Amino acid sequence: MAESKPDTRRLAALASGARLSRSQVLGLVLALAGAVVLPSFISDYRAFQYTMVLIYAIAVLGLNILTGYNGQFSLGHAAFYAIGAYTAAIMMEQWGIAYYWTLPVAGIVCLVVGFLFGLPALRLEGLYLALATFALSVATPQLLKYDPISPWTGGVQGVTITKPDPPFGLQISQDRWLYYFALAVLIVMFVCAWNLLRGRTGRALKAIRDNPIAASAMGVNTALYKSLTFGVSALYTGVAGALGAIAIQFVAPDTFNFYLSVTFLVGVVIGGLASIPGAIFGGLVIVFIPNFAEQVSKAAPWAIYGVFLILFMYFMPTGIWGFIRLLYARFTRGRLATGTPRATHTETAATNAKRRNA
To answer: How confident is residue 168, by pLDDT bands cut at 50, 70 and 90?
Structure first.
């Protein structure tokens, strides 16, 4: 029976996700290797599509930190995405600043805006918070068209951005270079999120999500954590917006409408709530499912898109990553269960032998 204790600890570690097992580390290494060699086997257009997958994955992760880990519902993250995109566009085209410097600036600007927005939103929860963020999402495109700031934002016409060339004389196309650049940014952002959420801060966010009264009684500053979570979530979305502006080479107010906020939310739910790897699957869904739906039916692509979402929710209610983890847990539990009876049988045989000898 003593041999079952390590198995119990192993299952507990698997459920908590606090550390990575050998198979998970191997899977992570293989995924990174596949991501690095992928542009060598696809066209520039496909490289651009996968670049957008990486960019949307960062934005989905930012919203997931807010919704999945902290329990705050937002329909206004298109506004933070727009702020990040316009920050990059203004810095590059009007101030002549290199594109890679726009990412931290866009993140800091969105961090401040998100934190300030989170302060008055502390009094709101549930549907009321969703309505407030919805208002932010609806108002942002109109504010970007406002005449006093149109010299910076370009008004209705938007701003065109020059696509950066590969550095150091690398003999690769601009689209492939932006793919690798977005991949590097994604790795940094994902590692930061993993370190943030697996420690004390992550436990505090989950405690606030599950029971804010109990979390406050345990000494968690719920007001501070909620505001900071809004800021960090906006930071991730702003960095994604800056990357998206650089990749698409154009920003316009009507691009960042309410539908974009709903798209981010769809990516969070389909990819998997409260899961970091689920953001990757969310980005894949955002980019490729609408295209696939249009190929299935050009007459009613959004109807096909809705059918796909219904099927995802019916067969994978915990999201794609939750479904994968469920399969992995069942496979691991099955391996552990097949090994336990052998140990129990051996112990029983040894006990019976001792009794016969006695």
So the answer is: confident
